[in-house]
Amino acid sequence: MNAWMALALEEAVQAMEEGEVPVGAVVVLQERLIARSHNRTIALNDPTAHAEILVLREAARKLGNYRLNGVELYVTKEPCPMCVGAMIHARIGKLIYGAVDEKGGAFSKFSMDLSRANHRFEVIKGVMEKESAELLKRFFKEKRRK
What we know:
Structural class: alpha/beta
Number of helices: 5
Order of helices and strands: HEEHHEHEEH
Mean pLDDT: 96
Helix content: 40-55%
């Protein structure tokens, strides 16, 4: 589990180097990497270009199906409601995330309840949480300095 999250963290670092909020994501199916991406909202001028959305799109293209049954999605920060909605529509099997997002997280802030959704998936939080949170703190600290 940590190896996949470490890969997502590499993507988050790349996002930070590009001036984007450092969030990275990877999609894994049966212990095989399917897709990886990071936030690109600024680069693409697209408010939906979150790491999770981009990695779901890439995985769907590679697998040839918009239904991503059984995939595991690793993301460095708790997803927003938009991204969780996309995960529900994609029918992912499991979400694993690092840092909690108390300001915009689907579960922490908005109390999304997957038991009421038409598709449910397992959620595991706190994987490499410290590393993910430190990267976000460093990014925003540097942004405030400028």
